[in-house]
Write a sequence for this structure.
C-alpha cells in the first residue's frame, strides 16, 4: 500500500498516476476522494471496480479553476455565477447540463454532470498538475462510512489504490451539498457541508429535489448509504439491553445512566460545524469497538444539522 505524505514531490507523482490512468486517493475539505482522470473512461471504470460502486450512480468532476466550468457545462446564468463566486472553492456541487467532452460513464448516462471546485490545497494542486478534471467519489467501499483521514482509506481500499495522499483530517467532515439547476430553478439533491440557508441567502429559495433511487443524477441519493459495519439505530429506550455491547453517539452530552461501552460526543458546545467534522471520524472509532449496536441521537435539522441527519438516516436504513 502506497500511503505517503501529501508534499509537492508526492503530489507530482500522484498527478503522473492520474495522467497514466491510475487511481489516487486524496484529501479534500469534505472527505477523502478516490480520483481518476475524469476524461478517461477506462480510468473512471477503475473507480467503480475498486469501490464496488453501482454503474448507475454518477460521479462528481473536480476542477481546479472556476474558468474550467465552461469546458464541461455551457449552462450559465447570473445565479450560477453568484454561487461560483461566493462558494467556490468549497463544499458545493452543481449539477448542470454537460458538454460532449464529459464521458457517459462519469454521469451514468445522464445528460447532466456534477461539478465542484474543492477547497483544499492538495486537491487543487493535484488537479492542476494532472491537467484534467478528476472524477472522485468518497474513497471507501460503496455504502460504507466516508473517510475523513488517510487511515480510513487504507482500511477500506488498501492495495486497490495506486497512491493514498495523506493530507491530514478533512475539516468539513461531510460530503458537499449538491444542487441542480433545471428549468431556471434550483433543487437540493443532497444536503452537505454548505447549508441550504447559506445558499438561499445568495440566490433565493431552493426547492427540494425529488430523487430517483434507480437512476440518480448525482451521488448520495440512494436510501441506504454511509453505513458502519456495526448496526446503527436512532436512540430509543427499547434498544437498551445490558447484555449487549452498545455505543452511543450523541450531540452535546450523555444524559443517560445506561452503561454504554463507548460514548462519543459530537460537540460539547452544540456547534453543528464541529459536529459535522466529527461525524464520520467518530463513527469510524465506534466501528472499531466490536459493538453489537451503535445508538445515535437526532439533531435539529437546520444548517449543517440537515446534512448530519441525512447521513445518519441513510446509515440506519441499512439495518432496517
Amino acid at each position: 500500500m502506497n500511503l505517503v505524505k501529501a508534499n509537492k514531490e508526492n503530489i507530482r507523482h500522484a498527478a503522473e498516476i492520474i495522467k497514466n490512468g491510475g487511481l489516487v486517493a486524496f484529501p479534500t475539505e469534505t472527505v477523502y476522494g478516490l480520483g481518476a482522470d475524469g476524461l478517461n473512461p477506462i480510468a473512471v471504470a477503475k473507480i467503480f471496480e475498486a469501490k464496488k460502486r453501482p454503474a448507475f450512480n454518477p460521479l462528481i468532476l473536480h476542477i481546479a479553476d472556476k474558468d474550467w466550468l465552461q469546458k464541461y457545462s455551457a449552462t450559465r446564468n447570473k445565479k450560477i455565477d453568484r454561487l461560483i463566486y461566493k462558494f467556490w472553492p468549497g463544499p458545493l456541487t452543481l449539477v448542470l447540463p454537460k458538454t460532449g467532452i464529459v464521458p457517459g460513464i462519469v454521469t451514468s448516462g445522464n445528460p447532466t454532470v456534477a461539478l465542484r471546485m474543492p477547497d483544499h490545497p492538495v486537491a487543487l494542486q493535484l488537479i492542476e498538475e494532472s491537467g484534467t478534471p478528476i472524477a472522485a467519489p468518497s474513497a471507501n467501499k460503496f455504502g460504507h462510512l466516508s473517510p475523513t483521514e488517510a487511515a480510513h482509506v487504507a482500511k477500506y481500499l488498501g492495495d486497490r489504490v495506486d497512491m493514498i495522499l495523506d493530507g491530514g483530517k478533512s475539516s468539513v467532515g461531510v460530503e458537499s451539498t449538491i444542487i441542480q439547476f433545471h428549468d431556471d430553478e434550483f433543487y437540493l439533491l443532497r444536503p452537505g457541508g454548505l447549508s441550504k440557508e447559506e445558499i438561499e441567502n445568495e440566490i433565493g429559495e431552493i426547492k427540494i429535489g425529488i430523487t430517483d433511487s434507480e437512476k440518480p443524477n448525482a451521488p448520495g441519493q440512494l436510501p441506504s448509504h454511509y453505513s458502519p459495519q456495526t448496526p446503527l439505530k436512532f436512540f430509543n429506550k427499547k434498544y437498551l439491553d445490558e447484555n449487549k455491547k452498545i455505543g452511543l453517539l450523541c450531540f452535546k452530552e450523555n444524559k443517560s445512566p445506561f452503561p454504554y461501552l463507548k460514548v462519543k460526543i459530537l460537540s460539547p458546545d452544540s456547534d453543528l460545524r464541529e459536529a459535522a467534522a466529527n461525524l464520520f471520524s467518530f463513527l469510524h472509532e465506534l466501528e472499531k469497538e466490536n459493538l453489537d449496536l451503535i445508538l445515535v441521537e437526532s439533531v435539529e435539522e437546520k444548517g449543517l444539522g440537515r446534512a448530519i441527519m441525512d447521513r445518519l438516516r441513510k446509515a440506519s436504513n441499512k439495518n432496517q
The chain has a mean pLDDT of 93. Residues 3-208 form a domain with the DHBP synthase fold (CATH 3.90.870.10). The two ends are 35 Å apart (CA to CA). DSSP finds ten helices and 15 strands in the chain.
